[in-house]
Amino acid sequence: MEALIATSDSRQPPARCTAKLADVTVTTTAAEAAHTRIEPGILYFGTPVVLLSTVDQAGVPNLAPMSSAFWLGWRGMLGLGAKSKTAQNLMRNRECVLNLPSDTMAAAVDRLALTTGSDPVPARKYERGYRHEPDKFGKAGLTPVSSETVAPPRVAECPVTMEAVVEAVHPLAEDDPAQRGGILVFEVRVQRVHVHDEVRMPGTEDRIDPDRWRPLIMSFQKLYGLGPQVHPSTLAKIPERLYRGPDIERSRDQSSRANENRFTSGSQR
Ligand SMILES: Cc1cc2nc3c(=O)[nH]c(=O)nc-3n(C[C@H](O)[C@H](O)[C@H](O)COP(=O)(O)O)c2cc1C
């Protein structure tokens, strides 16, 4: 397991130097009172839900909702509890599919809440009400379909599915012995992007139209959709093609292994 973890943990963090505020005018009094200091238990302000499919040691697919996810180029960063079945599958096989549900799929996603592919259920999860579920696709009522380049199946109903491989595993909170090893951040490289035609931007080959794409968002454990655009975006003046990085070209080298990717559903075990 250690061999898979990125070497960043062996590097010493740079010494912290105390920053001093430059000579600027800092407003006090009324404006200062605009905030109240609080200590929320979680800081989940709102990120898209991902249904992460992986396969276990027997080739049985697992499907887990997660939302500590973001993307830069064709790389994704996925924060996962190290004891989850998904994290263990990723450490072993280094493959997954990032299935992005739309807001109309909230009920299916919610059916997977409090389930785990782990058997036995880890004690802390059991206390919170989690139960083992061997057939996550069946439980959610979602359809597994073969991927082109990885063994884990895609979710047919998700408007966006991305086949990906793990390129690095970064430990979180390594500085604190009490938290060390609890959460892993998986850096994945996307190899295929598949979309439903209804989310594509008309008149373009490779673009998703944000006015058509309605992602499911998790905010403070609750499920939301997105409203309409609230303001013209200056950033959106940068043409999307300027963001195309080398991982797109590289993904084409990955040949399809469609015939190998016959998966076994949990119920057929
Ligand atoms: C909407 C939603 C978002 C979640 N986000 C995360 C997350 O970002 N990271 C994580 O480790 N668990 C997250 N969870 C909890 C996992 O789904 C849970 O740990 C599950 O047991 C993982 O399944 P597995 O053990 O079969 O891998 C989320 C659950 C839901 C319902």
Automatic annotation (TrEMBL):
Protein name: Flavin reductase like domain-containing protein
Record's keyword terms, sorted: Flavoprotein
Pfam families xrefs: Flavin_Reduct
PANTHER family xrefs: FLAVOREDOXIN (PTHR43567:SF1), FLAVOREDOXIN-RELATED-RELATED (PTHR43567)
Organism of derivation: Amycolatopsis oliviviridis
Family of the protein in this entry: Belongs to the flavoredoxin family.
Cofactor (UniProt): FMN
Compositionally biased residues, Polar residues: 256-269
Region (Disordered): 237-269
Biased amino acid composition, Basic and acidic residues: 238-255
Ranges for domain Flavin reductase like: 42-204
Keyword Ligase among record annotations: no
